[in-house]
Amino acid sequence: MTTLLLIGFGSGLPLLLIGDALKTWMSREQVDIAVIGLTSLVNLPYSWKFFWSPFLDRFTLPFLGRRRGWLIVTQIALMVAIAVLGFQQPKQALQLLAINAFVIAFLSATQDIAADAYRVDVLEPLEMGFGAAVFTLGYRIATLAGGSLALILADRLPWSSVYIIMAATMIIGILGTLFAPEPQQITPPTSLRDAVFLPFWEFFQRRGVVSALLIILFVTLYRLGDALLNNMSITFLVQMGFTNTDIGKIRGGMGILATIVGTLTGGAILRQIGINRSLWIFGILQALSNLAYFALAQPQVGKNYQMLLVAINVENFCGGLGTIAFVAFLMSLCNQQFSATQYALLSSLMAVSRDILAAPAGAIAKSTGWSTFFLISIAAALPGLLLLPIFAPWNQPPAAMSRPGLDEEDDLWGKN
After folding, report:
1. 1, 127, 229, 300: least buried by Cβ within 10 Å?
2. pLDDT at res. 126
3. Closest CA to 319 of 356, 355, 301, 292
4. DSSP class of residue 398?
């Protein structure tokens, strides 16, 4: 569990360093707002990672085992790439900065594939829930470092020094990988073709083509409203006149704590009402929480720290509620035999709304103004919610969750 905490930290650190921290840096350098919105496209590898996840299932590096070998390679490469990012020039050499950030996203997405697969391989069934919670705790602590701490340091140090310090903290994830226990030996797919084909074929066969396609559409759209807001919230706060320290302490610090509280609260409620009703209730709350930013954007409010505190805590708490329901839903869709590749596929689709569909957010905010933009972000959540009655009806009778891949007598590899 200790090593999972450390690996979770390494997994969570890069995301905000090429997200909130980078957008804050670009905003301070007065990069065009539409360009800042488009920087979410550097996160495309998070949406594409299912393309190369079978490669990690099929091939094992000649050191540290099937999962830890890939972990240590990506972690060391991330340490170098993050340090190099600090020496880029957002205003003068935007293309080089974007390429550097894209490389970090690719390495981070690959690390996530290996970390998720390691978690599945090493945990016994009774350890799954606690292990996932410990890993998520490490991830959230890392987002505090990459979001809150990085912004606070940026008010006192050059951005190059900030990114070197953040790169050095990747040693935490590296230590976790080095000391992590090797999981029980699992036979990999016998060919790359099997590793690529069978997980997708099984998913569509089990769910049915129409149902599977609707689920894919839902996974892509469910968090779109939240993605639009998060893509531009840093730039909005900078334009409102808040300092890096203000944003780091309140959004990066208290906001992350509110997310953790929302996640824990959502988990407790989900156990009582089930996944379906949680998707409804938490999804609606997640959409309506954007009204807090709408209120902050009103001219009569202005640079108001109390309203900033309310807006960030409400949005992050409700975002935590939505996250726990969504992750539980994704886990319920996976066949245990192919959980690494299938979860990579589903989480990649989830990243599509965050990285691709939310990319025009800056242009929308620029043309409409902040108040209208936040109302549009609420409307963007509706398509995902409208799909819920199809495969997550409110009044579905409670039933034991199936565990595909565990109860079948024969598996798709042809073994009994």
Report:
1. 300
2. 56
3. 292
4. P
